[in-house]
Design goal:
single chain, 16 helices, Citrate Synthase, domain 1, three-stranded antiparallel sheet, 369 residues, mainly alpha
């Protein structure tokens, strides 16, 4: 193999950024100078939005300004729901999300403006409207009533309310908010890279995010949280999970929710955050059996494969206990990541160079017709 070729671009530096960094040596996810897990334990997702888009943690006044800006953008084009109603009932929800974001672009008067201020406004609109595409896209495909956003709830509580139709309890709101922070930004995964590549052509933010949805739909990037929950439900209880997983390993089936391209020797710190959240939620809802199943699975994979949980492994049962349909696990992941990807698109537009890599050609030469 040519030494210049790095399969998957593993550890290849593709961009400079002041947004985030995975410091594996110190087991930290750095977001604009702050450690992500500490942020998740001390501030809200709303604060993370301001931090990523504006560069600092908000003051009380700035947080109020942000809340008002998001609520002012809750008005949703009914034409988009009409488009989504035309999709087949069995449509993959990531395809629904991709279609909705793409259609949303045509309703934005700032679409072709790449300035910082215009991109900020677009990011706010996306943050206000994508949860509605996730929740109500799901509802309309099932002929369920659309749930309008509530101006009386926090951003995270409103998102969960639109999905479930129920105002969440305080603990549910806090756990869901933490999960959104955990998913909000993670340096340069495939979907973020895809968005930056698209943005580097001077394409608009909606186009970049549509491409990112397509990337996250792929089973090697997104979808693991859904697969984890299906596996846990197949096992049924703590007495069966070990045999169920051992059977999968014997068949050389990949067990989702374990392993990470960056976190190879230790648990993803975001997984530990969600493990702690699951313990609290399971106790509150009298579902401690589900927590025990997950712990058994974690211990088995460490013993058999020296693999550790990633965020999706513990986020899946958290979302399940919050009443989120399994088909929405990955769309919720993307909705949480909107702010991180939007910040990367803004950064790309403001210091742009077109991505144009080269290849090592391995085909024939000197052929003639």
């Amino acid at each position: 193999m040519d030494p210049r070729y790095v399969p998957g671009l593993e550890n290849v530096i593709a961009s400079e950024t002041n947004l985030s960094f995975l410091d594996v040596e110190h087991e930290e996810i750095v977001v604009r100078g702050y450690e992500l897990i500490e942020l998740a334990n001390k501030v809200s997702y709303l604060d993370i939005i301001w931090l990523l888009l504006a560069g600092n943690l908000p003051t009380t006044k700035e947080r109020k300004t942000l809340e008002e800006a998001l609520r002012s953008e809750y008005v949703f084009p009914q034409e988009i729901l009409s488009i989504l109603q035309l999709l087949p009932k069995q449509a993959n929800m990531m395809d629904v999300l991709r279609t909705g974001i793409s259609a949303l672009a045509s309703f934005d008067d700032d679409l072709e403006d790449r300035s910082h201020d215009a991109n900020y406004r677009k990011a706010i609109r996306l943050l206000a409207k994508v949860p509605q595409i996730v929740a109500n896209g799901y509802h309309v495909l099932r002929d369920e009533p659309v749930v309008q956003p509530s101006h009386d709830l926090s951003y995270s509580a409103n998102f969960l309310y639109m999905i479930t139709g129920k105002v969440p309890a305080k603990m549910e709101e806090e756990v869901f908010d933490q999960s959104l922070i955990a998913y909000s930004e993670h340096e340069m995964p495939n979907s973020t890279f895809a968005a930056r590549v698209i943005a580097s052509t001077q394409s608009d933010m909606y186009g970049a995010l549509t491409g990112a949805v397509a990337s996250l739909k792929g089973t090697l990037h997104g979808g693991a949280n859904e697969a984890v929950m299906k596996m846990l439900l197949e096992a049924g209880d703590a007495s069966k999970i070990e045999q169920h997983m051992m059977n999968k390993l014997a068949k050389k089936e990949r067990i989702m929710g374990f392993g990470h391209r960056v976190y190879m020797k230790k648990m993803d710190p975001r997984a530990l955050l969600m493990k702690e959240a699951l313990a609290k939620l399971a106790k509150e809802k009298d579902r401690i059996e589900l927590y025990n199943i997950c712990v058994i699975g974690e211990e088995l994979m460490k013993r058999e494969k020296m693999l550790f949980p990633n965020l999706d492994y513990y986020a899946a049962p958290v979302y399940y206990l919050l009443g989120i349909p399994i088909d929405l696990f990955t769309p919720v992941f993307f909705a949480a990541r909107i702010v991180g990807i939007a910040a990367h698109v803004m950064e790309q537009h403001e210091n742009n160079r077109l991505f144009r890599p080269r290849v090592i050609y391995t085909g024939p030469r000197d052929l003639h017709p």
